[in-house]
Amino acid sequence: MRLSLTVNGEARVLELDPRTTLLDMLREHLRLTGSKKGCDHGQCGACTVLVEGRRLYSCLSLAVMHEGEAVTTIEGIGGKDALHPMQRAFLRHDGFQCGYCTPGQICSAIAVLEEMAAGRPSHATEDLEAAPPLTDAELRERMSGNLCRCAAYPNIIAAIREVAGA
Known about the structure:
By secondary structure, this protein is α+β, with helices and mostly antiparallel strands. The chain has helices spanning 22-29, 85-92, 102-117, 136-142, 153-164; strands at 2-7, 10-15, 48-51, 54-57, 70-72. A hairpin with a 2-residue loop joins strand 3 (48-51) and strand 4 (54-57).
């Protein structure tokens, strides 16, 4: 199938087998290898990317489902000369160890702050009428779909809080 979408701000047209996942399209067809294939079952979050600004496990989504949409991978967030604030905070707070989960963690963390700014509650949000609070419990719940085998969780939360201005 022919697929047209925008990846990291660049219009792309590809011919793909309709069974190709978004993750495999990114890694194998576009050579954007920042998003990782961890579990390939949507359980670890290493493949998290942003689609139309919302986080998504790219291993669970077929590429053809995203016709005309904008996909942002870790390669499209900041760069060598101008890191995204979340990337700088992860570096400052040592929010990674082996680094395998870091691209997905960063994409997720950026989306978490946008979700909270939009007032979207999580399962940990107690007052559904008020803006979600920037508590560790709230952030942990929102980031719970991204696993880190090295257990850098406290540092990841500290990085997110820094970017949020807390």
